[in-house]
Amino acid sequence: MIVRGSIIIRYLIHFSFSLLLVFIPQVFAQEEESSCISCHREMGGDLAKPIELWHESIHKKNVISCHNCHGGNSKVQDMDAMNPEAGFVGSPKEEDVPKFCGKCHVAVMENYIKSPHWQTKKEKHPVCTTCHTAHHQQRATLELINEKDCSRCHTYERARKIRFVMEETEGSLVQLDERIEKLRGEGFNTQRLGDALFANRNEFHRLTHVLSVDLIIDRTETIRGDIKKVEKSVGSDEATIKRRKIGGAILIAFLFISAFIIHIYRKTLP
Amino acid sequence: MLKKIIDWIDERVQIIEVIENHLTGHMVPANLNLWYSMGSVLLAMLFIQFITGILLLIYYVPDVDKAFESVTYITNEVPFGWLIRRVHAMATNIFIAVLFLHMFSTLFMGSYKKPRELQWMSGSVLFGLGFLAALSGYLLPWSQLSYWATTVATNTVGAVPFIGDELVRGLRGAERVEQATLSRFFALHVIVVPLLFLGLVAAHLFFMRRTGISSPPGTMKEEVEKIPFVPHFALEDLKVIYFFLGILFIFVFFYPKLYFPPDALSPADPFFTPPHIKPEWYFLANYEMLKLIPNKFLGVFIQLAVALFLFFLPLIDVGSERHPLKRPIFLTIAILGVLAFIALTVLGEIL
Lengths: 270, 351
Known about the structure:
Chain A has 270 residues and is mainly alpha-helical. Chain A has helices at 2-22, 35-43, 45-55, 58-61, 66-70, 97-102, 106-112, 116-119, 128-132, 147-150, 157-185, 191-208, 213-268. Chain A has a domain at 45-138. Chain A is 66% helix and 0% strand. Chain B contains 14 helices and 2 strands. Chain B has a two-stranded antiparallel sheet with strand order 1-2.
């Protein structure tokens, strides 16, 4: 009897653990944080502001964290995190900002330093952060060229022309991006298309920074040709989706109609 | 020609006798309703899972550096790979949903009672096994969703006192989810769980064959008219299977984003936790309960107690009455249980 009891208890324990494996729900995920984020958040006030802004930025979305731009050692939880020997740069001087951002945005920087924005003889240059902000950067669109912002420093006339000649192509880029995202949602491998679009968008957006209407018109033709190639591939994939859905609809109709016919036939059986 | 082949086989193994005994000559109650076809739907879904699983296995590579890539290859390069993968993923959801319906109908109709206790118990283990199959398969694509869902799921076992950390390490095969975890879950998903399924389904069907199909509550066994299983009831089953296949393919062809959210489309990144990660709908009730109960161990313990209560239900509820309206205490508990499950699932989704 005791032996049988112990077998039952052992069985219950084994069964409990098996069920534990089965019924494990998925709970609270903890995000790994760099020391920059945890310390600055704790400090609060103006020192925490960059973290709040960064959380809504395109950099955060693309997993670009503080140390990717500011350097330092983000894994150390003390002041050594900001050691200049580890490449830490807190707030770069204004004239160093293009170089600071240009570590990653190389092509944009190349165009920018050729532009009147950098070449101007005036004491105060507009730098990357003047238009794109320091920590709240959003995905670059033509909305950045607007009368309110441009008029802070000069008249809007030239900027208006630049925006006008870029609008159509920009519209195609935005639309194409949405279409590629839809394809991705359908399970298509959009890596190649996404990379091609990314290259085209970069090529196109970096033109903005030269501030030359003629150059933009000249280069836009070539870029539009490349965009058309991407559009063709996307169109082909979209046609595949359409074909799949038509096939699916036929199969579903067949199944439901078959179920109905079986139901009717069953009624005729004795 | 066909008749000759059949006669040749029959002469040796008496196949016609087997067919008569188990199909055309097997009589079942004529008043069986829709709920009695759920088991057949489950068998059909299980068959689909086996077939699509084997096809996926041809191209899938259980290696952390290649798993996501191989799944992308299946979806984009293998002929009809996208369809096979979608069907495998969506059929899991239909399978779990029908499992719930099958369990609930058996519960409400009191079909777990004597002499069908073993049928209920084997079914309960199959119910748990369905969840284990879903959970172990979840990690295999090695996407952001599968990686983090498995990380938090395996973390939960840490709530067990004293041996929690050891259990977590045992499940993962390492400190965190990595190659050892993928290998374990792969073995579990493609060998252990399918073999257990085959054995338990066989046992479940054997018990059903030995005890016979129960007739709906409120009807006297002796008064119930009988019909042959084939073709009469088999056609009923086929009708319901076609209906559920139709539902399956609606989701497969028109709503793939429901079971492949954006995080399922990015490769696993152990250094970036996606925000708002949530379990699949069938784990939401458990998930929400753990969130609502402050003590993690207590939350796990309550769920375990409920699971054990359900498993041993035929040994606890031994009365012979099967009609739910004549069992008010049972009916109240069952309805409250179902409502609590639905409420927790909805809360888990919206909170």
